[in-house]
Amino acid sequence: MAYKITEDCKACGNCKEACPVDAIVEKDGKYIINADECVDCGTCESNCPVNAAVPA
Q1: What's the pTM?
Q2: Is 9:22 a contact under the CB 8 Å cutoff?
Q3: What distance in Å separates the CA atoms of residue 1 and residue 13, rounded to the nearest whole number?
Q4: Extents of the domains making up the chain
Q5: What is the three-class DSSP state of 54?
Q6: pLDDT value at position 9?
């Protein structure tokens, strides 16, 4: 199961920097996880200061 980023995202970029497979991109001031590239490692979730990265 891939992860997703909720509306709580503050666009800090911690998730993108931590993602080991570069599955996260910035678009229109928010971050988006590409579900096809996500390996479900949870690194984004553990690096998000506002808990915006959650299992999809």
Answers
A1: 0.90
A2: no
A3: 22
A4: 3-55
A5: strand
A6: 96
Q: Is the dihedral of CA 10, 12, 13, 17 positive or negative?
A: negative
**In whole angstroms, what is the distance from residue 35 CA to residue 39 CA?**
8
The yes or no reply on domain 3-55 and CATH 3.40.50.2020 is no
Q: Quote the tokens at residue 38.
A: 């996500």
For the stretch 2-54, pLDDT in tens is 999 999 999 999 999 999 999 999 999 899 999 999 999 999 999 999 999 99
53: phi then psi, degrees, rounded to nearest 5:
-90, 120
The pair of structure tokens assigned to 10 is 């503050």
- Which pLDDT belongs to residue 1? 80
